[in-house]
Amino acid sequence: MKKVGILGSGQVGQILADGFLKHGYEVMRGSRDPSKLATWKAGAGPKASAGSFAETARFGEVVVLAVKGTAAEEAVGLCGDGLNGKVVLDATNPIADAPPVNGVIVYFTGPNDSLMERLQKKVPAAKLVKAFSSVGNALFVNPKLPARPTMFICGNDAGAKDAARGILEQFGWDSEDCGGVEAARAIEPLCMLWCIPGFLRNDWVHAFKLLK
Asked: Helix, strand, coil shares of the chain as percentages rounded to 5?
């Protein structure tokens, strides 16, 4: 699968889009206002394009959801049926519009809920896989760290998780399959933990590693 749609016009979407381009994929980025992506498109090369959310969902053989958590349900709704049957890498976290408390970001979900579960119910025919949600965007693509880091993934479709693992391997990551969509209840809060050193000590260059 060499066509990737990136839903989101922010920095997370840009870094992932540039990473996929680096690894030889064709990439379309999607936005409610595609004109916001004109500068990126002009400088990203012949394999880069931009469109609406619906156009981007239809374009991608793999689609990446890289919008703010508060906008995620609306964003997948704007894709229409374009996500049906697609592998969708869910990079979102349910971060509330509230400041951190002593370095701990605030979520709008509870311990027995996750944003990924809400999204999977919203688009039941899509094959969601949680990925790129527990590390900062500067380390998404081939991070230079003392050891190869671990990306924790989950989802209900085994084939989709296989596709995600292949992408993560290209991007310099080991992956750990944590099971079905309910495991997002544990994976999404890893973003809270990852952010604490950053907010407390301005330390943003780290990742998780599972040792066995």
From this structure: 40, 20, 40
Helix (H) or strand (E) holding 192: helix 190-201
Nearest to 150 by CA among 94, 199, 194, 104: 194
Q: What residues in the chain have per-residue pLDDT under 50?
A: none
Q: Which of 151, 159, 140 is nearest to 177 (CA)?
A: 151
Residue whose pair of structure tokens reads 């793999």 in the numeric block: 62
- In sequence order, what E strands does the chain have? 3-7, 26-30, 48-51, 62-65, 87-90, 127-130, 150-153, 174-177
Please state, in angstroms and rounded to a whole number, the distance separating the CA atoms of residues 55 and 122: 19
What per-residue confidence (pLDDT) applies to 1? 66
Q: How far apart are the first and last CA of the chain?
A: 31
Q: How far is CA 153 from CA 10, 59, 133, 183, in A?
A: 22, 24, 9, 8
pTM of the model as a whole: 0.96
